[in-house]
Amino acid sequence: MTILNILHYPDQRLRTKAVPVTDFGPELEQFGADLLETMYAAPGIGLAATQVDVHQRIIAVDVSENHDDPHVLVNPVLTLHGELQETEEGCLSVPGIYEPVRRAERITVAARTPAGDEISFEADGLLAVCIQHECDHLEGKLFVDYLSSLKRSRIRKKLQKQQKQRA
Ligand code: K2U
Ligand code: ZN
Q: Hey, which residues are catalytic here?
């Protein structure tokens, strides 16, 4: 298995809109396994292919306490339901930043598995938040985009300074 490199904001590759997957099967299943392994190692409870510079519509999530309920969703399509709920969000591509974001409290997900099978399910709570967060990544959208431009600018400058210090 492979740990993949996670891109960090404000890397412009994170702004790429992912394209639908057309080739299902063993290679996609291997990428899904690598995406999950990279997520667990971060550690995180979600990771989108965009974040590892693969611009196809693939996300990995596992919000279980024991990290034993992995889902790799291909070409996910969400239907949003209910009121908006506010949750403190972070992002593996925006390290060390946590801010409140309002998202739909319940969603219906239609997707394919890496093998190509169609799946559909409902989600609420942290799973709903996580899947909406990951699907934003596939649109080139980050959770900092929901913040004020002043706050986003301050976050960008803080991360750019940290990246320069590490270089
Ligand atoms: O970077 C990512 O896309 C992974 C996200 C997934 C996520 C964001 C907001 C809310 C829920 C999930 C996180 O960085 S994973 C880290 C994390 C872990 C537990 C709770 C919240 C965030
Ligand atoms: Zn994220």
A: 134
